[in-house]
Amino acid sequence: MDSVRKLVENHELHSLGKWILLASLVGLVSGVGAILFDVVGQSVTRFTLTQFAGYTPLEAAGEHARFDHVPNSLSPWLLVAVMTIGGLISGVIVYTFAPEAEGHGTDAAIDSFHNKRGKMRARVPLIKTITSAITLGTGGSGGREGPIAQIGAGFGSWLGTTMKLSNRERRIMLAAGMGAGIGAIFRAPLAGAVFAAEILYSDADLEADVLVPAAAASVVAYSVYVQSLPPDIRFIPIFGAALQHNFVSPLELIAYVVLAIVLVIVGMAYVNAFYGTQKLFHQLPIVPHVKPAIGAAMAGLIGIGLLKLYDNNHAVLGVLGTGYGTLQIAVTSATQLGIPLLITVAIAKVVTTSLTIGSGGSGGVFGPSMVIGGCSGAAVGLTFQMFFPDIVTEPEAFAVVGMAGFFAGIARAPISTIIMVRALTGDYGLLLPTMLVSTSTFVMSHNVRLYRKQVPTRMDSMAHRGDFIVDVLEGLQVKDIYQRDRKVTMIPEGMTVEDIVHRLAYSNQHYFPVVNADQKMVGIFSDNDVRAYLYDESLWKLAVARDVMTDNFMSVAPDDDLNTALLRFTSHDLDELPVIDHTRPGVLLGMLRRRETIAAYNQRVMELKRESKEEEDVHVS
């Protein structure tokens, strides 16, 4: 890393060039990390679930199985046993070496960006890789995006620290790493870049500075990751290249609005169940190391119970693992599953994910959200097809739109989710209904947040606290603050120190402007400057104001903003600044005090908060 830092310094790689270089390094590591995570996860599945329980999870059409399927009969109780042991191993590793690696990794990366100056412990990505691979590989219900996002974010943070970047630059590297991981594992580089900029905030806001570095990192990570895949599936979407649904009639939009309402209700249930389960497990009076095992066991029992209920239909086991195999059927042939099974999978996936991740298991929440939204959408589509077959001809289209709309609402990320689902499915014929449903769920889910570490806007982020101060100060001017009617004692430049001392004795001023015969200000001194002459009375009649003053003084004009004034206060550690009329050089208008500037800032902040609260109340009502 020293050689990279010297390259940046010696060749003056500033701004865009520097970001491209550093982001490419982050993308390279993120791509390799995605490969390792995929290999380790599938290895765990092959030598645990498949080997001992006889269960190989269904896969999406575009996923690459790195091991041959081994035909074995499923042993339900061994499935539960494998999941329990996997949860135990994951919990022991996490809570022994890196407790912050528990749960879904995206929230941890968001928290680091806003509240920890972009810093993450170097061991977190490694621990997250191992424990998430174990959790998902043994059948735990979760997604891949959280671990991969944390892997990329962790390296970005480490690189920023090693390169001695500023806090701001380290935050950008962390976010770029998060986007690179997403872009690689889902083979969606554009979505990864936008996701990194959008997922940090719960309102309609973006971290614009992240976009270009995240795009560069995502492209590199994606290019590295796809090299590990066979050429025939290297560039096809995860759910295959055969999804080509069409938007047929404007009347369908009514059904899609109903879908949006359903997704909002399911989303609220998902978020409440997830954090409610997390709270219950935190309150359990046992060591945290074993809690993921309990959650995994309960999720496994739900899985085998549903398997018995649906006569060994393996599609219902989409409630375990990533669930992408079941989702593949929902987006290609929803009638094969039927409304009851689709609703069951959607509801049960909420519960099994809450148990797996909420108990402290390691995994992401994006993947389960796709399954929940897709199955809910397919169920809604089939229902409308029963009553309006001429209008709703493709219920599978509702599954695709449901995937995007569900996550857009609860993750507060409509733009990146629309791009992500398009990349996952390759289905671009549903852009209009996808935009309608995603924006609708985003608006209606205003108070629902899957990622609790998000902040509403940049104004609320510690990462932009300084920007906010500047914005407020730049909105105020000196002429609005300084008191014009305050009497200022001015000292003629020829006044002796003896007369100055007597003048100070009857004044509360600390700074004294010095003026010439034309009453133009030529300098200034403070009462501290006069004290240097008090111990030598022989100078009292000899020294005059011109000897005491400094003629190289700082001043402000009435039209200057308060940010300019505050910079001048702090640069010379001053408490007052003369206000000079810029149209009449040297004419003193008054004095601006530092405490007046700070008071004006505080008052403006309170006004902004009150205005924001009033706007929010109007929005809610």
| E-strand count | 5
Radius of gyration: 32 Å
Q: Helical stretch count?
A: 24
Indicate the percent of residues in helices: 55-70%
Order of helices and strands: HHHHHHHHHHHHHHHHHHHEHEEHHHEEH
Tell me the structural class.
mainly alpha
Placed side by side, the strands forming the largest sheet appear as 1-2-3
Shape: elongated
Describe this structure in words.
The chain has helices at 2-10, 15-53, 76-97, 105-115, 123-137, 145-162, 167-185, 189-198, 208-226, 252-283, 291-309, 324-332, 334-337, 339-358, 366-387, 395-411, 414-425, 431-444, 465-474, 497-505, 527-531, 545-548, 562-571, 594-620, and strands spanning 491-492, 511-515, 521-526, 576-580, 588-593. It is mainly α and 621 residues long. It has a 3-stranded mixed sheet. A two-stranded antiparallel sheet has the order 4-5. Strand 2 (511-515) and strand 3 form a beta hairpin. The longest helix has 39 residues, at 15-53.
Question: Could you write a compact summary of the structure shown?
Answer:
This protein has 621 residues and is mainly α. The chain is 61% helix and 4% strand.
